Write a sequence for this structure.
């Protein structure tokens, strides 16, 4: 069989790239280190509870999310957020403060002080920064909206999405729209108002999943790809071979192919491309990913005092909590807990407290139970408790990240036929990874078309290095 492209990594990014390339008629092979596909996207049925080990939501504002759902025939299993989601919660002085869902929720809630609410208006008047230098999210938001808003609203948001700290991460890499609005209109608020008048979408997201959880997506892609997906194959190295590449999968053998797409985590990509593209490897190696732990707990409904009428809660660093935040899983989507029970997930560690994420499972469960007792009145033994450790959780887009990405995007210029894709380019969300995969597949397709006939698979011989 002639193979056009070898894709390393069978997470959402790798599978989606393979899906797009096969739909254009190319023959591909996906090599995945683990016994299962999906990478971070793992949903597990636990006696009627459904635990999301990694992602739990899809962002419907990104068209690729809906496109993949439809093209894979998953729309009949798709579920939107439950009607019970009425609030977002932030922790204030050790208690949950409800922020109504909607654009003015923060202004009507008592979470921010009156001074902080007035300070938000200063964004309309302040001069814009013009030196073009990247700055942290904390610096940008404090400058435009005041310190209280930055610390008590933006920092928890950043912890919730990136498991990161607003004081460390790059505003240009994570919130490029805010930077662009400041530049164009002199004020983020004015820009957002203009954007609405012009029919643009406000930042924010519409979330969905599938009844069987997020892993429904990679499972469907892997099923479509059939025996093009080879699990339990750890790629050891990539080297140049004529006008193509040699991919060494250790005991599983070697493959020769015209195109290689590396769809692994950035530290693995750095190792794999070190020989073929040292500049790209150096850039990928600079991306740091702190550990993150997920603690999933199920309780009988009557053992939890809080109405759980929201997505969950987030905490700011100043609150000094042990959890970054939590999700009310059984309120968000159906089938997450058996009848008469609720399910909640706590997220622990990240850049704020990496050592906590390395605690053993029983300690993490105790810690999460103590937090849930305090914050949502969850008492008694949980019916279900399960922990997932992610030793390298989510890539951190530090100040200067856009420069790193610019280096990574030119990999194919330095080594024709070598492409990188994944959650360290344009955002970590699954939907953004799908979008990135579409772009990567298109670039690889164009390259294959220009290059003419593929070199093809020359060998898959166990033990040959
Ligand atoms: C706890 C958590 C919660 C999250 N919540 C959300 C959420 O609610 N919504 C959302 O949109 N996103 C969320 N995300 C982010 C999202 O899940 C990830 O960014 C996305 O799944 C990354 O997909 P990927 O394919 O790029 O990488 P990965 O999922 O990391 O896949 C990379 C794959 O490469 C394989 N691999 C590594 N080395 C090799 C090798 N040498 N040879 C072969 N294969 C190799 C790995 O085994 C893995 O399967 C969350 C992430 C985490 C960790």
């Amino acid at each position: 069989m002639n193979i056009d492209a070898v894709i390393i990594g069978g997470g959402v990014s790798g599978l989606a790239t393979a899906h797009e390339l096969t739909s254009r008629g190319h023959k591909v092979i996906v090599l995945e280190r683990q016994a299962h596909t999906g990478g971070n996207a793992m949903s597990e049925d636990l006696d009627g509870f459904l635990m999301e080990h990694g992602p739990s939501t899809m962002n419907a504002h990104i068209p690729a999310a809906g496109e993949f759902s439809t093209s894979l025939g998953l729309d009949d299993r798709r579920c939107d957020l439950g009607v019970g989601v009425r609030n977002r919660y932030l922790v204030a002085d050790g208690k949950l403060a409800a922020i109504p869902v909607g654009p003015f929720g923060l202004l009507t809630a008592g979470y921010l002080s009156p001074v902080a609410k007035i300070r938000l208006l200063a964004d309309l008047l302040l001069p814009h920064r013009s030196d073009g230098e990247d700055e942290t999210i904390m610096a940008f938001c404090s400058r435009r909206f005041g310190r209280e808003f930055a610390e008590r609203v933006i920092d928890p948001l950043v912890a919730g999405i990136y498991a990161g700290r607003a004081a460390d991460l790059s505003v240009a890499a994570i919130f490029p729209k805010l930077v662009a609005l400041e530049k164009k209109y002199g004020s983020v608020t004015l820009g957002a108002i203009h954007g609405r008048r012009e029919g643009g979408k406000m930042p924010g997201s519409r979330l969905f999943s599938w009844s069987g959880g997020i892993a429904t997506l990679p499972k469907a892609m892997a099923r479509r790809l059939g025996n093009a997906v080879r699990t339990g194959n750890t790629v050891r190295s990539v080297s140049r071979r004529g006008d193509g590449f040699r991919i060494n999968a250790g005991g599983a053998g070697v493959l020769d192919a015209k195109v290689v797409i590396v769809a692994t985590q950035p530290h693995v990509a750095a190792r794999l491309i070190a020989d073929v593209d040292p500049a790209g490897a150096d850039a990928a190696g600079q991306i740091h990913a702190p550990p993150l732990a997920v603690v999933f707990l199920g309780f009988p409904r009557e053992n939890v005092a809080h109405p759980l009428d929201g997505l969950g809660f987030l905490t700011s660093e100043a609150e000094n909590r042990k959890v970054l935040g939590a999700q009310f899983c059984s309120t968000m989507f159906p089938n997450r807990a058996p009848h008469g029970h609720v399910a909640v997930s706590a997220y622990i560690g990240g850049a704020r407290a990496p050592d906590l994420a390395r605690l053993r499972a029983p300690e993490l469960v105790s810690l999460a139970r103590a937090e849930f007792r305090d914050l949502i009145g969850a008492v008694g033994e949980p019916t279900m408790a399960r922990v997932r450790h992610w030793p390298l959780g989510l890539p951190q887009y530090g100040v200067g990240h856009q420069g790193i990405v610019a280096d990574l995007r030119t990999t194919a210029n330095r080594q024709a036929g070598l492409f990188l894709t994944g959650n360290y380019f344009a955002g970590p969300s699954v939907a953004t990874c799908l979008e990135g995969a579409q772009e990567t597949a298109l670039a690889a397709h164009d390259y294959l078309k220009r290059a003419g006939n593929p070199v093809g698979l020359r060998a898959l011989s166990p033990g040959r290095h």
Remarks:
- The first strand starts at residue 5 and ends at 8.
- The chain has three domains: 5-40+213-288+397-451, 78-84+290-390, 104-197.
- The mean pLDDT is 92.
